[in-house]
Amino acid sequence: MWYLHDGAPPHFARQVRDFLNVEYPNRWIGRNGPIHWPARSPDLTPCDFYLWGHMKQLVYSEPVNSIEELTARIRVAAETIREDPTVFGRVRASLERRARDCIDNNGLQFQHLP
């Protein structure tokens, strides 16, 4: 298993990085980690361009009436995504398409893609 770490200031503390080095040796992605965090581009970062949007669609398909209901829906959405055998293929194909578009645009910002 790999750990994707965003490098926000509280997450960048030495104690946090030491913990990640022990729990995920050479298998965590983040600021000053063994694998650097990808460019802060929602067009290239899978969690930004796919995971959160897809999870929000699943969680908020209908109005949420309580914090308990929200918590339950988040758990169900995470399990739904985890159990979908096609999800990683779709993420990979989308990432490849976005990377090609980024290269075609000389690495400059481009509009959100469908």
TrEMBL record:
Gene3D superfamilies reported for this sequence: Ribonuclease H-like superfamily/Ribonuclease H (3.30.420.10)
Top-rank taxon: Eukaryota
InterPro entries for the chain: RNaseH_sf
Protein name stated in the entry: Transposable element Tc3 transposase
GO molecular function annotations of the record: nucleic acid binding
Gene source species: Aromia moschata
